[in-house]
Every structure is written in C-alpha cells, then in structure tokens.
Amino acid sequence: MIDWSLIQETAETILEKDPAARSMLEVYLCYPGFHAVTMYRVANVFYKQEQFTLARCISQFARMITGIEIHPGATIGRRFVIDHGMGVVIGETTVIGDDCFLYQGVTLGAGAEARQGEQTRGRKRHPTLKNEVIVGSGAEIQGDIVVGNNVRVASGSIVLKDVPDNSIVVGVPGRIIYKDGKRVDDKTPDPEAEAIKRLKQRIDSLEKSLNSLKEASPLSNQTAQADLGDENKGDNDDDSDPVDVFLQGAGI
Fold first, then answer.
1. Prior bond to 189 cis, omega within 30?
2. What are the phi and psi torsion angles at 144 (to 5°)?
3. 20 to 30 A from 45, CA-CA: which of 77, 103, 176, 244?
C-alpha cells in the first residue's frame, strides 16, 4: 500500500522550506521534485512486490516528465525534498534518511562498481545518507559510503569516502573543512592546490629575474621603472596572498 502521509509530508516540507512556494496547490502542480518523489513512492510499492519492470516503467516515466531519475529500489525516508531537481540521479541501493535535501544535478551513484556490471547485482553499491543531509547542486556521492547526520556537501563536490556527522565537505575529491562547527586542519594532500602554489612560485621567480635584468640595463632602466609603476597601480595595502586565501576556502 502507498503511504500517502509520506507524500503529504513532502508537500508540506516544500511549502515550509521554499520561499518561492505560495500555496499547496502550487506545490502539487508545479514542483517536479514533488512529482518525482510521489511517483517513486508508487514505483517502490511495485518494486517491493517484485514487479520490477512495472516499477521501472513508472520511474522512467517520472524521469521523462521531471528530469529526475530515482530507481524504485532506493530506500528514501520522510520529508525528502528535491529542489528544482533537473538531472538528479539516485541509484538502486541508495539509502536516504529523514529530512534530506537535494539540489539539481546531484548524483548518488555507484562509482567504479557500476563498471563491473552484473557481478555487483544485489550488492550495496550506492551511498547511504543519514538524517538532515543537504547536498548542493552538481555534487556527486559515489560508492557504498556513509554520509553522516547533519552533513552539508558543497556544490560541485565529489565525495568518495565516509563523512562523519556534523561536517561540511567541499572540493574534488571532497574533503572535510568543518566538523562540529570547528575548522578542520586537513593534512590530506591536495594536488590541485599544490600545482597552483608551484605555478605561483615559478611566476614570482620569473618576475624577479626579469626585474633584475631591467635594473641591470641602464638604457631601459627608466622604461622599467615606468612599467613597474603601471603594474603597481591599483595595489592596496592588503598583504594577504590571494592564492592562499582561495586555497583556504574563501567564500565557503
């Protein structure tokens, strides 16, 4: 039997959390996330009755009209909301707890195990999201991993490892920058950050060499000083390194 209370709870949660929602009628008629979750609830009933093809047909129809693909075999808790929703994919063995919130373009996928085909059929290969998890737009959570309670996953992140409760995850691959409200001193190597730092160091070294050559040439000394004056226009008194500020998560 379909539990209609779950569907009603989802509609009420959308109305409560989305400032753009003006009425319950608007939620019922105009929210693809609500439509997709509703059809998932129906398809899940048939899936549990082992009417797999019918269940998949319902989920594929939902995908056609909403752009959201939820496998009927997924396990989804109460008050689950997908905002906007286009491009969301939720795999067969995904488990989602209560009060979770997904934005558009989120993938809860199988990762590398998806390439093994029928060898992994019947095995848990998709992530588990516990309660009150928020996943930003374009983020990917892949593999049989656990994302703890009250976790925030930043937009565009790729999460490949378990995440403890009360954490904020950012980056590719995803790394924890806050836990229990405190900044985490992450010692995990970041190849992208290291490459940016090395490039900046190289540029600084080349600029120093170029300035030395200009100063050594009496004919071009005046021109070099003029060029340096132009380059310094607009500089402020802030001594902070913008690259370091960026790599430390500015704007998060």
1. no
2. -80, 75
3. 103
The residue with tokens 């990917």 is 140
4-183: CATH topology:
UDP N-Acetylglucosamine Acyltransferase; domain 1 (2.160.10)
Residue found under tokens 């019922």: 28
Predicted pLDDT of residue 251: 44
pTM, 2 dp: 0.72
Q: Which one-letter DSSP state was computed for residue 161? A: S
Amino acid letter, 61: F
d(C-alpha 98, C-alpha 134), whole Å = 11
CA distance 204 to 198: 10
Beta 69-70 vs 95-96: how paired, if at all? unpaired
* pLDDT tens by residue, 75-104: 999 999 999 889 999 999 999 999 999 999
For 31, the 3-state DSSP assignment is: coil
Q: Give the span between the Cα atoms of 45 and 73, in whole angstroms.
A: 9
All CATH 2.160.10.10 domain ranges of the chain, comma separated, are 4-183
| pLDDT, tens only, 39-72 | 999 999 999 999 999 999 999 999 999 999 999 9
